[in-house]
Write a structure and sequence with these properties.
This protein has about 270 residues and is an alpha+beta fold. It has a single domain (about 1-270), classed as paralog of FGE (formylglycine-generating enzyme), CATH 3.90.1580.10. Helices cover about 20% and strands about 15% of the residues. The chain is built from 4 helices and 10 strands. It has helices spanning about 1-25, 90-100, 125-140, 145-155; strands spanning about 50-55, 55-60, 75, 80-85, 140-145, 205-210, 235, 255, 265, 270. The chain has a 4-stranded antiparallel beta sheet. A 4-stranded mixed beta sheet has the order 8-7-6-9. Strands 2-3 form a two-stranded antiparallel ribbon. Helix 1 packs antiparallel against helix 3 (about 125-140). The longest helix has 24 residues, at about 1-25.
Length: about 270
């Protein structure tokens, strides 16, 4: 009897959490913090590999990049979790099968369809919907990372460095794409950064939660910035397999209208830490 009640309470808790999350996911912030029970654990077959980033200050932006990366400024972030890898075709397929959502373009294309390649050609809304579904499955609050979280994660603890590995270009062994097909590579082929995160500079651009503002750094808050309240484009970060230079600086900013579905756009999830 007690086991049945605990199961019902768990379901009720999950539904309440998801309801609150859906109210936040429309603007990409999803800043709700919830107190999880001691028995909380992820569903093994669905949850991604999450790395916890400790709270602290970091230097955001760059004086060696574009004007939209300036001024450099100190930012405090509370602790958060972020995926060790971008979401893969294997993971996204479970979402499609469970929800009936339309598969993205190229999903069956041999150049893009390996289970361990990053999912591509997803809109911002597709990525946010995946996070909502993942939250429901795991009784946790998954979301897209904020732009500040994504940059701190990319730096891997290297204060002010140009790239996740330092200031120099990558070694000749660096994998920027699948050399046989010219498309995206499997995730995790290059060395991780100091936080143990893979592909933070390469392979696919990754959607972030924030609306994009070219001049946002001139007036952004120094604690847990979440981007402007509205906009026309969402922030993206990271490099791309289809670019001539297939890696990106940690501070480099990019953006895209939310409905666009490009073959070099994917995402990784973040997680709110209770």
């Amino acid at each position: 009897m007690n086991e049945q009640r605990a199961f019902r309470d768990s379901l009720a808790h999950r539904k309440l959490l998801l309801c609150a999350f859906k109210k936040c996911v429309a603007d990409g912030t999803a800043v709700l913090v919830d107190k999880f029970p001691p028995s909380f654990r992820f569903t093994q077959m669905i949850a991604p590999d999450i790395v916890t980033i400790s709270p602290g200050w970091f230097l955001m932006g760059s004086m060696q990049g574009q004007e939209n990366e300036q001024p450099c400024h100190r930012v405090w972030l509370d602790s958060f979790g972020i995926g060790r890898f971008p979401i893969t075709n294997r993971e996204y397929k479970k979402f499609i099968e469970a929800t009936g959502r339309q598969p993205p373009a190229f999903f069956l294309d041999p150049i893009f369809s390996n289970p361990e390649q990053p999912i591509v050609a997803v809109s911002w809304d597709d990525a946010a919907a995946y996070c909502a579904w993942l939250s429901e499955q795991n009784n946790a609050l998954f979301r897209l990372p904020s732009e500040a979280e994504r940059e701190r994660a990319a730096r891997g603890g290297l204060e002010g460095a140009l790239y996740p590995w330092g200031d120099e270009p990558p070694p000749p062994t660096f994998v920027g794409c699948n050399l046989e097909t010219g498309g995206p590579a499997k995730v995790g082929l290059n060395a991780p950064n100091g936080f143990g995160l893979y592909d933070m500079s390469e392979n696919v651009h990754e959607w972030c939660a924030d609306w994009y503002d070219y001049n946002y750094y001139s007036h952004s808050p120094d604690h847990n910035p979440r981007g402007p309240d509205f906009g026309q484009r969402r922030v993206s970060r990271g490099g791309s397999w289809r670019h001539r230079i297939q890696y990106s600086r940690c501070a480099a900013r990019s953006s895209l209208p939310i409905a666009f579905k490009y073959a070099d756009y994917g995402f990784r999830v973040a997680m709110t830490i209770p």
